[in-house]
């Protein structure tokens, strides 16, 4: 039994988090549940706050990716009882408003006086304490908890914690980009979200999936799941992908000079110390046969049908990755996506960014090649993931053995290691890809 206080991760200010004692959560409403957490993850979204790039107040308890066991339920909770194993959606939603009933629990109209949508431990997302703690109060528990089989710490623990946000988010990114089986897909960003977007695209039968980043450990994971890694520091990733998509088999037709140059670059590249021949074979597998079946005119479609921004407003400038360029990925994707193709922006953009470098960016205003986007007749999907609508189906894929999203988990840590993990994860250093905190001693 615990006392009146518990440990939690508290935002103190830019680049500063501490593990502090805070009051235990209590049932405040009959529809609440209290969950004792067994795993709780750190998200790329937490780093926006850590970097001082949101309006988060010092003192905020962070975290929104909780997995645990029900400790107590309010009188009006009917679906759960003490001892049930549950994962909690990062969205907090009521279940009965105009948006919730249509499945958009990400834009609930009743839980946050400021905007549509609420979440645990996040700037602007309502007065809810975060989940990087020993225990969590979950409002509207019948909706926001999802029941799980097994017991804490079993073979699914690392997979199930990813159901709170990142696996549904990766899957939702493919919906924003209107993925269909057989589609060609480019994902920018090989963080947890980008990796699970690529994984979800492959699970749904995408023909070829490219993933762009520059962090070697993350590009290795891209290759492990059967997607095609593209290192943007080698050269323009759009030209690299188009060169691969244009490679012809059994034809004497010469490639255009720019693409020929790119193919040479690719042929000689060895980003992860692997044999270049093997690398290039993996990268081009299956593709020449697709090109061989094109009809005249279809060469105008040598980009991808689905492009996904899994980076957001803190995108790196390709010419100098030590700097940010918020529009870098959107610019690249608008060039790469085919006419009538689809752009999914799952990476976060914000309307308040106090840490931005210019007056427009501080208000979330950016210059984009909108004319090109319009001429191509591209659809654009954006926004937060409505986790609940997806979570149970992905849970059953994990239980059924079709999906094992925990391949992204790089670190499992205790509370004592949290400040260092934030520092390292913020640098995306030393293989830090997905960190899971184990809150119980
Ligand atoms: N829409 C939602 O509901 C939702 C949910 C969770 C996370 N997110 C957002 O998704 C984004 C990614 O999250 P994550 O946890 O994977 O974060 P992350 O920061 O670990 O991953 C981002 C990756 O993008 C790479 N990158 C940076 N600039 C790039 C560029 N120009 N081209 C290609 N790659 C580039 C980085 O090297 C990094 O590996 C964040 O913005 C996060 O806030 C959105
Ligand atoms: Zn998250
Ligand atoms: Zn609602």
UniProtKB/TrEMBL annotation:
Residues 30-148 form the Alcohol dehydrogenase-like N-terminal domain. It comes from the Archaea. Coiled coil: none annotated. One of its GO terms (biological process) is small molecule metabolic process. Its cofactor is Zn(2+). InterPro entries: ADH-like_N, GroES-like_sf, NAD(P)-bd_dom_sf. The keyword DNA-binding does not apply. One of its GO terms (molecular function) is metal ion binding. Signal peptide: none annotated. Keywords: Metal-binding, NAD, Zinc. Pfam families: ADH_N. Belongs to the zinc-containing alcohol dehydrogenase family. This is Threonine dehydrogenase and related Zn-dependent dehydrogenase. It comes from Methanosarcina barkeri 3. The lineage of its organism: Archaea, Methanobacteriati, Methanobacteriota, Stenosarchaea group, Methanomicrobia.
């Amino acid at each position: 039994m615990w006392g009146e206080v518990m440990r939690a991760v508290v935002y103190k200010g830019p680049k500063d988090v501490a593990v502090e004692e805070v009051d235990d959560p209590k049932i405040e409403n009959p529809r609440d549940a209290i969950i004792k957490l067994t795993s709780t993850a750190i998200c790329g979204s937490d780093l926006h706050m850590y970097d001082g790039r949101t309006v988060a107040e010092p003192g905020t308890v962070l975290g929104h990716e909780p997995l645990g066991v029900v400790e107590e339920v309010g009188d009006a909770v009917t679906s759960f009882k003490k001892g049930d194993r549950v994962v909690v959606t990062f969205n907090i939603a009521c279940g009965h408003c105009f948006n919730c009933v249509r499945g958009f629990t990400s834009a609930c109209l009743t839980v946050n006086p400021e905007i549509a949508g609420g979440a645990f431990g996040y700037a602007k997302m309502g007065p809810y304490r975060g989940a990087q703690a020993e225990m969590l109060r979950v409002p509207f528990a019948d909706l926001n908890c999802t029941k799980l089989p097994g017991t804490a710490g079993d073979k699914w623990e690392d997979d199930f914690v990813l159901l709170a946000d990142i696996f549904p988010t990766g899957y939702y990114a493919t919906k924003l980009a209107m993925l269909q089986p057989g589609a060609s897909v480019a994902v920018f960003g090989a963080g947890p979200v980008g990796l699970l977007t690529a994984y979800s695209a492959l699970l749904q039968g995408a023909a070829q999936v490219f993933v762009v980043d520059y962090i070697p450990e993350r590009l290795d994971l891209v290759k492990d799941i059967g997607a095609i890694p593209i290192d943007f520091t080698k050269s323009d990733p759009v030209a690299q992908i188009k060169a691969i998509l244009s490679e012809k088999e059994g034809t004497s037709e010469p490639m255009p000079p720019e693409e020929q140059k790119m193919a040479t670059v690719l042929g000689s590249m060895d980003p992860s110390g692997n044999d270049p021949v093997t690398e290039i074979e993996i990268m081009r597998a299956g593709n020449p046969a697709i090109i061989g079946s094109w009809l005249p005119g279809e060469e105008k479609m040598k980009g991808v049908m689905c492009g996904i921004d899994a980076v957001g407003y803190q995108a790196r400038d390709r010419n100098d990755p030590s700097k940010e360029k918020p529009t870098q990925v959107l610019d690249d994707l608008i060039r790469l996506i085919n006419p009538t193709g689809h752009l999914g922006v799952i990476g976060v953009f914000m309307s308040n960014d106090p840490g931005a470098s210019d007056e427009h960016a501080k208000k979330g205003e950016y210059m984009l090649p909108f004319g090109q986007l319009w001429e191509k007749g591209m659809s654009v999907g954006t926004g937060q993931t409505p986790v609940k609508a997806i979570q149970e189906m992905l849970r059953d894929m994990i239980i059924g053995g079709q999906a094992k999203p925990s391949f992204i988990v790089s670190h499992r840590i205790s509370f004592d290691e949290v400040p260092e993990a934030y520092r390292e994860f913020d640098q995306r250093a030393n293989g830090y890809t997905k960190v899971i905190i184990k809150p119980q001693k």
